[in-house]
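Summary for the steering committee. The consortium agreed at its last meeting that each partner would contribute one worked example illustrating the joint modelling workflow. Our contribution is presented below. We chose a case with several input lines so that the handling of multiple components could be demonstrated. No manual editing was applied between input and output; the record is shown as generated.
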Amino acid sequence: MLSKNQQIIFDIIEKAKEPIKAYSILFNVQKKGIKAPLQVYRALDKLVEIGKIHKIESRNSFVACKNSNCQISKATAFSICESCEEVSEISDNKLSKYLKSFQNKAGMKFKKYNLEFFGLCKKCSVK
Amino acid sequence: MLSKNQQIIFDIIEKAKEPIKAYSILFNVQKKGIKAPLQVYRALDKLVEIGKIHKIESRNSFVACKNSNCQISKATAFSICESCEEVSEISDNKLSKYLKSFQNKAGMKFKKYNLEFFGLCKKCSVK
DNA sequence: TTAATTATTGTTATATTATAACATTATGTA
DNA sequence: TACATAATGTTATAATATAACAATAATTAA
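What follows is the complete predicted structure of the assembly.
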């Protein structure tokens, strides 16, 4: 169950068709009484933790999870268009199986991964 | 050929055994006459571009490239210990082959990827 | 159902990370 | 030389994120 602020902020992120930044969220929710960055960041932290949203690390922005496979944000993959900045979550069972089973030679036990692919989306590559 | 500032900053990063942040680099190079953040960021941008260093996106920090396989920073993978924050670059031919050949269903042509694994390193997992 | 605990909220201030804009100097190249 | 390109220096400021403290709401255990 999401709290009031968490719900407000999740709704904004879900409605946005593109990744959205913390301060842009803040701007959008000020009319709803959320006035301070920290209120936004706290909700974001929680939403990331429970897997409702993901952070696109290379862009400092947030998207709603579109994928039932990335259990609680433990395994995420995105494609990012370097021209239009469109981001989409990759849902590919072979890929996620491969990465989950990947074990580094150093013997580290992985709990989580994040993968970001960069290139040109279909639209931008014909331009 | 690296320029003066690029060389100074690359040397700092290479000597550091751990990822280092921009303002920590700035602090380290002030005695060498580099006074402003922008001087550091410009050198960092260039060093990333030519593949001498990589940015650890989830940590906003930088490491020297240890891997001849990530041609000009196009294909990078790291393991990150969530306890001690040790970062090491993963050099695994099968992994990089797999990811380079990965093509998203959306038809995007990838030019680059960055993968970050999180977990506990050997040392931290026995603690 | 009270008491204790934990999660959430509100608020101000501040820390951290990064870039804009402009002027100058150095380096490479036709 | 003249031209182009890359690198530098500098001031100011933008953008991203957290510290610290106080209050309130929700959950759980006795």
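Strands of chain B lie at 53-56, 61-64, 75-81, 87-89, 109-120. Residues 3, 21-23, 37-38, 41, 60 of chain B lie near DNA strand C (CB under 10 Å from a C1').
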